[in-house]
Amino acid sequence: SKSKGRNRYEFFSYVIEEQAIEKRRIIEEIRIALKEDQFILYYQPIFDLDGINVTKAEALIRWLHPQQGLLGPNEFIPIAEQNGLIEQIGDWVRDRAIKDAAHWFRLTGKVTQVSVNCSPLQFDRAGLWVDNWILACNKIGLPRDTIIIEITENTLMDPDSPIQQQLHRLSDCGIDIAIDDFGVGYSSLAYLQRLDIDILKIDRSFIQHMETNENSIALIRAIITMARHLKVKVVAEGVETQGQHQLLQQLSCDYLQGFLFAKPMPSAQFTDLYVTPLAL
Ligand code: C2E
Ligand code: CA
Ligand code: CA
Ligand code: CA
C-alpha cells in the first residue's frame, strides 16, 4: 500500500505539472492574442423596463482563438488576473469600448452608455488608470458620461485601499460607477455612504429564483426601494423569462438585461439592431 500511495502522489504531481504547463501555454497565447488582435468586444443591450428601448450596453470580452474558436472570458480572465496580463487586456478593452461608443455617438448624436467590467487588479496604485480613461475619452471627444465602470463589491472591501481614491476621481470626472453582481459579495453597504455609486446591478442568482422563492423577491424589492432613496438606478441581470420581466415591472426596476431580450453580440450587430442613425 506504500507503493500505491506513492503512485497516487506521483499521479497528482503529474496532474499539477500538466496544469502548470497548460497555464503557461495560455499565458503565452494571451500575449500573442494581444499582439495579433484576437480579442473581440461583444455588447449586450441593457433595456428600459419596457424591454424595447435601449440606451446602454455592457461590453463583454471574447477571444477568437485561432485553434479553439470563440472563447468566453471565464476561460482566460482568471489566468490573466494572476500575472498582470489583465492590465494589458483592460487597456485594450478600454480603447475598443471608447471607439465603439464614439462611433455610436457620432451616428446618433445621442449617448449610448457603454458599461465596462474592471477587475480590482486593474487599478494601479499611482492612479494612472483613471488618467488613462480620461485621456482616452478626451482624445476621441467622447462625453465622459458615456462610460460606466462596473466593479464588484469585493473591490470595495477595504475602505482604506487606494482604489477608493481612484473611484472618487472617476466619479468627479463624470464617469458612472456600477456595482456588479450586487448582493453576493463580501462587502457591507457602508461604501454606498462613502462613494457616489450610480447603478446597482442585481445579481442573476436573485432574478433566477424570484418566481419561486419569496426571499429572493423580498430582497429584490428591498434593493430597489433602498436604491430609489439613494437615487441610484437598478439593473436586473440575467432576465430569462416573461414571468421575471412582469415581476420586475411590478417592482419598478429601472433597467433589464438578459437572454429574454438579447444575448451579447458583436458591435456591428449591436449597431444594426439598436443604434438608430440620425435621419440625414
Ligand atoms: P458579468 O460581468 O456578471 O457579466 C454577465 C455575464 O452573464 C456575461 O457572461 C453574460 O453573457 C451573461 N448573461 C447575460 N444575460 C444572461 C442571462 O439571461 N442568462 C445567463 N445564464 N447568462 C447571462 P460572459 O460574457 O461569459 O462574462 C462572464 C464574466 O467575465 C463577466 O461576468 C465578467 O465578470 C467577466 N468579464 C467579461 N468581460 C470582461 C472584461 O472586459 N474585463 C474583465 N475584467 N472581466 C470581464
Ligand atoms: Ca458585469
Ligand atoms: Ca456619478
Ligand atoms: Ca454581473
Task: Walk me through what this model shows.
There is one protein chain. It contains 10 helices and 10 strands. The chain has helices at 2-35, 77-81, 85-108, 128-140, 162-172, 191-194, 204-209, 214-230, 242-250, 267-274; strands at residues 39-48, 54-65, 69-71, 113-117, 147-152, 176-182, 199-202, 233-236, 255-256, 265-266. The model has no long low-confidence stretch (mean pLDDT 93). 47% of the residues lie in helices and 20% in strands. With 280 residues, it is of the alpha/beta class. Helix 9 (242-250) links the parallel strand 8 and strand 9. The structure holds ligand C2E and calcium ion (3 copies). Residues 23-278 form the EAL domain. This is Diguanylate cyclase/phosphodiesterase. It comes from Shewanella ulleungensis.
In a nutshell, what does this entry contain?
With 280 residues, this protein is α/β, with parallel strands linked by helices. The protein has helices at residues 2-35, 77-81, 85-108, 128-140, 162-172, 191-194, 204-209, 214-230, 242-250, 267-274, and strands at 39-48, 54-65, 69-71, 113-117, 147-152, 176-182, 199-202, 233-236, 255-256, 265-266.
- What percent of residues are in strands? 15-25%
Q: How would you classify the quaternary structure?
A: single chain
- Please give the number of β-strands: 10
Q: What percent of the residues sit in helical stretches (DSSP H or I)?
A: 40-55%
Protein name: Diguanylate cyclase/phosphodiesterase
Identify the notable features of this structure and list them briefly.
binds ligand C2E, eight-stranded mixed β-barrel, binds calcium ion, globular, 280 residues, 20% strand, alpha/beta
